[in-house]
């Protein structure tokens, strides 16, 4: 008889607006992996996220045996090993490092934009505690990252290599997050290559289903 554990599905703890959760969900969809999504409001007073992730953040993946994995980079790396379908991270060498650097850049853009947004809007901070210099510092990182991505993509079809990889997914999630929270940046105006990539990615069911 098969052990009972094998019948359980993975549980992803997350929110529908988190770009890091979206990255994980897109990877799940591209790799045709089954999971159960549990919505957690990490900013609410009653959140229990720290029982699974002491850092108090989503995404957090609860594997079939009950062990927790975080953060999103660790989760997607693990998921990519679960099935040979649509390999998203090259296994060795420069190609692997290149994809992971794209991911670091895209995640870093999101981190900076979240820091800027919290500085501006976090309700637990007094108006006098908000620093425009800090917001500007973070938004400069966002702008520089966009410029670097545009240049890195150039006239290629994908960010790295000749197939869809985690690099494209991570970049797509970063651009989608700017659309959601920083519409006023109008990033498309000066980034035609990224615009084209994003249009193409947006047609994939993995992106449509997680918008
Ligand atoms: C970042 C996760 C994160 O910032 C990762 O998983 O890649 N490096 C981590 N999660 C946010 C939600 S979101 O804005 O995507 C989060 O859970 N924030 C709550 C907090 O207290 O930081």
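Q: What amino acid sequence fits the structure above?
A:
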């Amino acid at each position: 008889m098969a052990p009972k554990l094998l019948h359980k599905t993975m549980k992803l703890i997350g929110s529908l607006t988190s770009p890091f959760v979206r990255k994980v969900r897109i990877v799940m969809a591209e790799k045709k992996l089954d999971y159960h999504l549990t919505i957690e409001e990490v900013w609410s007073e009653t959140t229990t996220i720290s029982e699974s992730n002491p850092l108090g953040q989503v995404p957090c993946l609860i594997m079939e045996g009950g062990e927790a994995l975080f953060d999103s980079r660790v989760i997607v790396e693990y998921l990519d090993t679960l099935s040979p379908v649509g390999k998203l991270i090259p296994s060795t060498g420069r190609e692997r490092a290149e994809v992971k650097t794209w991911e670091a850049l895209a995640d870093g853009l999101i981190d900076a934009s979240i820091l800027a947004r919290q500085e501006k809007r976090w309700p637990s901070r007094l108006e006098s505690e908000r620093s425009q210099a800090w917001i500007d510092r973070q938004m400069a990182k966002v702008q520089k990252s966009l410029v670097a991505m545009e240049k890195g993509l150039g006239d290629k079809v994908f960010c790295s290599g000749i197939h869809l990889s985690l690099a494209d997914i991570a970049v797509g999630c970063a651009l989608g997050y700017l659309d959601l929270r920083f519409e006023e940046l109008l990033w498309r105006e000066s980034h035609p290559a990224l615009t084209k990539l994003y249009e193409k990615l947006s047609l994939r069911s993995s992106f449509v289903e997680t918008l």
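Q: And what stands out in the fold?
A: The chain has two domains: 11-79, 93-205.
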